[in-house]
Amino acid sequence: MRRVIVGVLILSSMATGLAFVSPRDRASVRPFIALAHPGQVIQPHQATDTNLTAFFLYDGRTKTLRFTVSEGDVNLHWAVRGPAGPGETGPEIGFGLWSPGQLEVGPLTRAQVRDLRKGRLYVEFIEPVALPEPPRAMRGQILPVPGVRY
After folding, report:
1. pTM of the entire predicted model
2. N or C terminus: which one in the chain shows less Cβ crowding within 10 Å?
């Protein structure tokens, strides 16, 4: 039940974000999704026991990638990286701390937009821990949602 409520809240917040985009500019907004889980984690991080869903909207007008996360806490760090496929490590494009609102990366370069559309970017969520233990993480490829266009 909690996940359903969280999902409804996230979808309504994304819809609210679209309400502020003019109809002319909506054609440039595209949705993406990442299912972050411990199965994609690469060393030196350790896998968490948590899964998250991140919902992304890329605005071609501003070249900005905005996203919300299904759950999280104030200690969760995030990074968008790429290009890289599953099992590969890519350079960092943007990073920050989790916050209850929308998170943002950009402006993206043309090459980064191409990689985004091909599913070659990924998001990594990191839970810092006390040293000397390595941080725990989860990761998910950012994939386009086919057939949906705003």
Report:
1. 0.75
2. N
